[in-house]
Design a protein that fits this description.
Two copies of one chain form a homodimer. Chain A is of the alpha/beta class. In chain A, 34% of the residues lie in helices and 22% in strands. The A-B interface holds A 54, 58-62, 68-69, 72, 112-115, 117, 207-210, 232-233, 236-237, 240-241, 294-295, 434-436, 438, 440-441 and B 54, 58-62, 68-69, 72, 112-115, 117, 207-210, 232-233, 236-237, 240-241, 294-295, 434-436, 438, 440-441.
Chain lengths: 482, 482
Amino acid sequence: MPRAFVVVAFLSLLSTPVRSSAASPKSAAVDVRATAARFLGGALAERRGHAVVTSLTDSAGPRLAGSRGDERAVAWAVEAMRAAGLENVHTEPVTVPRWVRGVERAEVVAPVDIALHVTALGGSVATSPDGIVAEVVEVASLDELKAQAAKDPARFRGKIVLYNKSMLRTHNFEGYGTAVDVRKGGAVEAARAGAVASLIRSIGTGYHRLPHTGAMRYEAGVPQIPAGALAAEDAELVHRLLARGGAVKVRLVLTPSLAADKAASANVVGELRGREHPEEIVVIGAHLDSWDLATGALDDGAGCAIVLETARLVRTLAGARPRRTIRVVLFANEEFGLSGAFAYAEAHKAELARHVAALEADAGAGRPLGVGVAAGADAVPRLRALVDGLGTVLPGEIHATDEAAADVMPLHAAGVPVFGVEQDVSTYFDWHHTAGDTVDKIDPEELARATAAFATLTFVLADAPTTMPRATPHPLPWRPGK
Amino acid sequence: MPRAFVVVAFLSLLSTPVRSSAASPKSAAVDVRATAARFLGGALAERRGHAVVTSLTDSAGPRLAGSRGDERAVAWAVEAMRAAGLENVHTEPVTVPRWVRGVERAEVVAPVDIALHVTALGGSVATSPDGIVAEVVEVASLDELKAQAAKDPARFRGKIVLYNKSMLRTHNFEGYGTAVDVRKGGAVEAARAGAVASLIRSIGTGYHRLPHTGAMRYEAGVPQIPAGALAAEDAELVHRLLARGGAVKVRLVLTPSLAADKAASANVVGELRGREHPEEIVVIGAHLDSWDLATGALDDGAGCAIVLETARLVRTLAGARPRRTIRVVLFANEEFGLSGAFAYAEAHKAELARHVAALEADAGAGRPLGVGVAAGADAVPRLRALVDGLGTVLPGEIHATDEAAADVMPLHAAGVPVFGVEQDVSTYFDWHHTAGDTVDKIDPEELARATAAFATLTFVLADAPTTMPRATPHPLPWRPGK
């Protein structure tokens, strides 16, 4: 297709009124179809994302907030941003809680002795060093526990609750979103019912004998009881032993601790300054921290690679700088309290009105499936018009959502339009938050396709003649873990 | 096909001379095609094998020789044989070594600190409680180590050797057989070269961050150094760190111990007595023990289910008892020295001449692919004639092999003809000897098909008019682990 035709076709799609600054553009429109095609071609041919994740995970290792790995990751990110050609590369201080995993051991001790694979949930308090020995009572959901406790207040007293809630494998976050409540809130409800510890079947889709960790929370006024996750196989074993009738007793030893003092970490920030409106900012983020059980290649090494590669692709293949500034932010401590996300929103509150879009890559390394838009009215049709004809690079539907990725939630709450490339997470939760989240799990081609989609969406938003309608500002319901 | 025709066709295939006892058979030949079809139909419709494995693994748990799980497994097997309708159910004493896994921990300590997933190989000696810290030197094979040590005698001195030999995924045992030498003999060669510890990349095909254990051996006169296996992911991490240049140091803590005294275990034996030649014995075996990291559902719970279900299928669906006695043997301690196999051969040496065939099921739960025959000349064409037309139940080629399954090696050495249903092991080594070898890994349909094939082969051998030519007796090369 001749370039002139493409440019005309592209401009003709802009059915919404343009802002005054864009009505007399200082620079010619970039051919977005050709640019997107170059992004995909470059990402696929070079497949550098996989090497970026390998570099991060091998150099820093696991990088839970406040750990030495976290510190190494910050240093790595500064270097990586410079290598990607970003400007104004710097760190911004973030104070983070520091939770350290201890011994973790569980075993059925009656009617038979069989070791279980367990991990402490993030934030859990410890058992005594010798652990807890108690009978297990199994429920399938928070509601079932509440209903049974209401009927029989003694049922869970002194017991270990096992939430045996199985997660559905879905290509999107629906399976996870439906299952994860027991991880976050299970200990509180179990403690309310008098239990001495709370276990869950791991929130995940794999059968690899690997327990899945992840943040949990306590509530003021409710006793804090230890909380862990069993591997799927082990939850099923306990289920079968219970189904035989008779008591099943488990010994649980978890000795994590939360440091009294907070630790220092940082958001790492770099920019590709805009050619026309450098004061207008498109934030593209990922989180630099990971859980401690593995090197966090999928969560969120892949996201770090996607945004760093996006910056490189835009810088080297777009032909011209986009109109607006693209700001890359690698957030501190997403996993255990969103410290970096809140610190960023606070530090930049004066310029949030000039944040015209925010995107986060935090869904692994799967292929792109669609685009979610959490912004003001008309944002969806306007984005559709902008990306028309880009389906081979940015495939799937563009649809409205009220969910923002975790690190851009505080921005969304302030009214910043949030966009996301939805990725195929069908296998992501096989490894999410487990010891198996290592770089070999990433398919370089799928990561390249996700990167090209993300780069295209970023470029379109940063270079469009007009900005997108803002979201309705709203308070965040709580300062969430993930 | 009318039954009379099948019988005639079946008899017409017997091109080899029949023994005098069979020349005037006391009982009519059983319709083997119909019987095989009933075995497959019954196995598929009921799929009891999966429940048998579940019962064993839930009731006994991991069952390394001499452990409490091993003891529970013996009691379980006696009950299971009675439930399967076997006669003369009894235990035969076996003395076993008792090796107990201790702490196992490894971590890269330079140039970065990253925890590794390690497990001790079976039989390994311990490090000190604080472990060994040493530089890692990587080789890809025993030969490479020997060649490098010959060239530079100081190369491995004081170092930790990492055998980074990757196993090929194959449908048969070729991949395993080619890779496993470093597990068995790696520590000896590393010690000869002056190393302080020996690590291998796990002998397996999975990427589940699960290290694979398995027996290793020492040699008289060579220092005994600790031996472990890293998960595939961790071996690859160390490789990449080494590829950057500079020293990679690892801390290794392994504290297993071998009990000074041997422990008591047992082979569990039961029979289905023959209708015509009860003194002639077809042994069908599996091993009751497992490694300690998991409940050993594939290795060898599946084999136990295959032979127990074979007995039940023959008893309930064959229409008549076979001519000869089928003896089910669940062997003690296959994994750590073949104690049960040697004890059986010794205890029954007076009747080994009347052992007319031996089969072991010890290849997981995959579908049947063929039959291996380790017996005298003409055994292959004679078996082909016997099973002609049974391809839907007993598929694939019948071919000669000189390899007997581990527990029937001593019988084969004494001249007993050995047969085996070859199964698809394409995924078996994803889980073999890891914590992931649990019952959920078994596909009930595939296990049912393997069982029907095994039952058919057993029935054919036990009911054929003549016995198979004996193997050439030979000494065993050594008393092997597996």
